[in-house]
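Quick one: structure for this chain?
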Amino acid sequence: MLPLQIAFNNKLSNYTLNPFTTSLISFATGTIALLMYSLINFNKFNNSLTLAIKAPWYAWLGGLLGAFYIISTIIISPKIGLATFLAIVIGGQLLMSLVIDHFGIFGSAVKLIDIKKVIGILFVLTGIWLIKSK
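Got it. Here's what it folds into:
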């Protein structure tokens, strides 16, 4: 679905001529859908909101990172191509995931980096290079 989301947002951006407006529309559409679902399941929604208030401050930053990501897809992917963009995104996600796992950041379970994971990342980086090369 991710390539479709990027393609849809890029198409919309051709009309808005503004990645921030496009991102706002994208988030608003998703927010409306989630609001409708939440109202249909109001008790679950209300209970989870009560629990969410207890979350640490950094747990609330996902929306900011999501906005940065969506804007990046709209600005960068048309310039470098969707496949190259997603290859870089996936590679970056895997690298950051290894760091988070290795150090147990944000309370995640510690999963130490080993030689197999290093080799796996090298394969991913090779794949990025192959996809990016002309």
